[in-house]
Amino acid sequence: MRKAIVTMALAASVCLLGGCDFFRQLAGRPTSREIEAKRMQIEQEAAAHQHRLDSLKTVQKQISDSLATLDSLRNANETLISSRQLAAGGKYKLPYRYYLMIGSFGSPENADRQAAKAEKAGYPATKIPFQNGFTSVAICPSNSLSEVYASMKKLRSEAFFPQDAWILNNE
Fold first, then answer.
1. Quick check: is 71 in a domain?
2. What is the pTM for the complete model shown?
3. Into how many domains does the chain fold?
């Protein structure tokens, strides 16, 4: 009988004092609220870590694609020109990293004619001045070398597209 009274008194005190958290707190252990907060923190850190891993995989794929495209360009004897040859400040005015160059002209009128041909075919053209006084005509701007190279291969069959086209790297 005495055991039953002690058990009932213990059960009543647990209910009145807040359950296991009271005893955990007395023992210096974390309460259920603290355990739940820690679990949430761990889940958030794991999600942030997974996001970083996914971003890293995306960057690795982009680098791999760019290297494969560079190999394709080299094997096809295509030309990739750096923006060092642009007129002063030109590279900072261009919003994209890569451009498909379809001609370079000493006469601005010839550049205008080539740009008009490209636009008539449905490709908006950009005229880019170079340090040597020439004006080049660019189409299919992109931040992806793979996209520009794919456009170059696709446009080889177009009437306005010259066979000696090249890619401008605006780094």
1. no
2. 0.54
3. 1
